[in-house]
Amino acid sequence: MTSSIEPPHVYTARASSEPILELRNVDFCYPAARRSAAEVLGGSRLHKINMIVRRGKAHGLIGESGSGKSTIAKLLLGLTAPQSGQIFFDGELLRPDRLAAFRLRVQPVFQSPLDALDPITPIGKQIIAPLLVNFNMKSSECQARLAAAISAVGLSGEILGKLPHQISGGQAQRVNIARALILDPEVLICDEPVSALDMTVQAQILNLLSDLRESRGLSLLFISHDIRSVAYLCSEITVLKRGSIVESGSRDEVLLDPKTDYMKSLLEAVPNSGLGLETASPSKPFSRQIGRRDLPAEG
Length: 299
Ligand SMILES: Nc1ncnc2c1ncn2[C@@H]1O[C@H](COP(=O)(O)OP(=O)(O)OP(=O)(O)O)[C@@H](O)[C@H]1O
What we know:
The protein is α/β, with parallel strands linked by helices. 35% of the residues lie in helices and 20% in strands. Strands 6-7-8-3-9-10 form a 6-stranded mixed beta sheet, sandwiched between helices. A 4-stranded antiparallel beta sheet has the order 2-1-4-5.
């Protein structure tokens, strides 16, 4: 179905810290879990989730495996609906009739960058696909937006004719981010976007996300097992345990003054217990904060 909404402009810079996405008292349970008390106890339900992602800010979501982080991502992408509670986008209740427009403005970036690409379609075609599908645009009409999107993620035009197996994992994640940006979204939901990449490339993608947040006023939900990445990128953090929020607040409140044993144990598990919080700042490249050499722009 073609959207009746206007295609996005090449770039929109936005800034503010008003709520852009909000979960209010959200309960969710997978159908299979409703039949299995053991699963429910194991955490396959979300219970009374209250969380705000602010415009132009990066919000970190952490918690052990199975705590419900990806389920929250699915709810915030409109891929599934809560059993109770409400989701607000830009101050408006997310109703079924608003889902189509919402899905253009909130875009996902997933964990396995190569799996998220079609193996037999050239990169350039994949990046403009959301414009072709949603706005019925011709390929020739997409070229200015395509050039802006690949430039925004630090890729050159040579990559456009390649197939996914001809590019690196880091380049593939940049392609996925470009494909999300081509719709000029307001929010990126990033579910473990760097965990499948090697360490040096992780730093490059984190710096890219940080730059995009600053330069375009993009809001980010950043889901990660890696507390150091969250400490670097995010100004607010929510901590999830077995489907319930156990801590939330500013980065420093949660990481420097943890209230729960659970959060303390997550922090104790950080390698070398080095969060570098005294120096952590999105104005400093991630590689410097964790003591690595500066890295080339394209990975
Ligand atoms: N489609 C599904 N049907 C039933 N249960 C599911 C489904 N997807 C996830 N679950 C269960 O819901 C719980 C939360 O899963 P979720 O993927 O949200 O956790 P997570 O915190 O993202 O974990 P990870 O860090 O390992 O990705 C887990 O118990 C999981 O087994």
